[in-house]
């Protein structure tokens, strides 16, 4: 039995797989978020306790020896720990917005663009650079008490194994890592005013050294590997490794990833390059803020239940009778494939004749256009895999295939946990049938006529988006 652990933002999951990649069982536990005036934090003790809990339940439910475990989790944020790996304060989530004024200044003075040109990382308020700089200005005692600024999975790995503090190249990619050397760019650290805090950055393993579990949740002696974090873990679990192939994660936020061996630091600063275990191989990532959260808001506002979505999409034609949605509902605006913190959603073409189905379809179409924008910017030229909670709607997947104009390799189940196991197996030299482990659940083909219609609609979407961006400035 192999176990994949995925420490998400709102839930911790552990999945058991057999050697052929069949998902045997999954255990999950919710974890809380403390939200207050744009600040989003998580209790590290609660998160770690949830990890131990789901592992304990899973190993009881699926008895037998655990041959290997892989760990992944949410990226970005700041998880400060002391020399023993214990929390110094609550973790600052990737969703945290307290550093937005600092980032605004970096936009204005050119720091934001300079960092992108050097590292390929378009910073946002919840990534470690702005958060560490904010703490240094407003809460220096927390940094004084910390030994290391880790990422989520690194904190869990340290506690499970007692291994020295460290991270892997994927998490380190934002925002300090030079993707060419796969080491921290000390010039960027200085540029963000953090030179005197350089010692807090977690040492980067390439990949990070594996270790054995101490017996909390996993049986003592279980071989455990740390990383990659959730986005590249999902790419690995979906079989997205060949240059040009892509993955779209349809979750609370959209994440578009394209495998590449190129490094283009020109063009509009947005997204990031995620380094992987293989030197020279990267993922061009456009992790947008728009996603299923936009649809959830529309469903809640209209009183439509999730189980009604497929029927409403089926009874409403493409174009939603003229209703259009720019689905940028996030309070922090958008971060990919462009950065526009003040951009807001727009709903147009509505009349007294518009139906709930029109609103739902227009929202799904708008999210699809945003996904196409991200994938185009990321350089998609090959096959496209899709995973995430949105794949549960078969009608939405058909609509998405039409909007994107390409077949979708739908991969269901705990894809991030699957990728974590595959990474762990590679690091330990355990051969796996990767084709079997990444086999899609189904293939969704686009309809040629609808794809042609949506190709025109996408150009209209880009025009309306340009006008909305101009108004937001």
TrEMBL record:
It comes from the Bacteria. Residues 1-200 form the Carbohydrate kinase FGGY N-terminal domain. Residues 271-425 form the Carbohydrate kinase FGGY C-terminal domain. Pfam families: FGGY_C (PF02782), FGGY_N (PF00370). GO terms for molecular function: kinase activity. Its EC number is 2.7.1.215. Keywords: Kinase, Transferase. This is Erythritol kinase. It comes from Streptomyces pseudovenezuelae.
